[in-house]
Write a structure and sequence with these properties.
MetI-like fold; membrane; 8 helices; MetI-like; Binding-protein-dependent transport systems inner membrane component; single chain; MetI-like_sf; 217 residues; 82% helix
């Protein structure tokens, strides 16, 4: 194998370790999805709340901004002190980094809804809850989806460093490659699927985002 080019070694590695790469791909994707999903469950209601009480928005979004300033490897180390090694540490780290785009886009989407439409809903006798789920959320959904889209792409990159805390994923293959002599092909076997995952996730969520955009009359 030493006489083969890097790309030939790459295909040779995939041919012999395809099931391992696929299992780490799946693990990597699920870790990213879980972190973003938890962030959406927390961030969307909080985003709606601060859109209602705008004086809280500066504090909440400011706190989420502070989290973004911490380098991901440093944040992973801090979380590890509380949760130890393993998958949960990476999921929680992904959750923290996913909060800002989801929070900010939910807030922006909710506050950008045309006030005349809200007044029309009130004039029709709709309750606050009915206005929320029948008017505001449908109109803000594409903006919220854009935040989830950004969060997932970032999450896929952050999950790659989860190998340092024993979480597995494609980052584990990349680390193996960096520790191996002439491990360029192994690095590619971890890096290329990571890039592909991020690109495909961005395209799919971008398609959903466009589909959710309010139809213009």
């Amino acid at each position: 194998m030493t006489n083969l080019s890097t790309w030939e070694q790459f295909w040779y590695y995939l041919a012999n370790n395809g099931s391992y790469v696929l299992s780490q791909f799946t693990r990597h994707f699920l870790i990213s999805i879980y972190g973003v999903l938890i962030a959406a469950i927390v961030g969307i209601p909080v985003g709606i709340l601060i859109a209602r009480r705008r004086r809280l928005s500066a504090v909440v979004i400011g706190a989420a901004n502070v989290i973004q300033t911490v380098p991901s490897l440093a944040m992973l180390s801090i979380v590890m002190l509380g949760l130890g090694l393993g998958v949960n540490t990476v999921i929680f780290t992904v959750f923290l980094y996913s909060l800002l785009p989801i929070l900010k886009n939910t807030y922006t989407g909710m506050t950008s809804v045309d006030k005349t439409i809200l007044d029309s809903g009130k004039g029709m006798g709709m309750t606050s809850f009915q206005i929320l789920y029948m008017v505001e959320l449908p109109l803000a959904l594409s903006v919220i989806m854009a935040g989830i889209r950004n969060a997932l792409v970032v999450a896929i990159g952050i999950t790659a460093i989860g190998a340092f805390v024993g979480a597995g994923g494609l980052g584990d293959i990349i680390v193996r490659g960096t520790n191996a002599t002439g491990g360029g092909a192994i690095i590619l076997a971890g890096a290329l699927p990571t890039a592909l995952m991020a690109i495909v996730s961005d395209l799919v969520l971008g398609f959903l985002q466009r589909r959710l955009e309010p139809k213009k009359a």
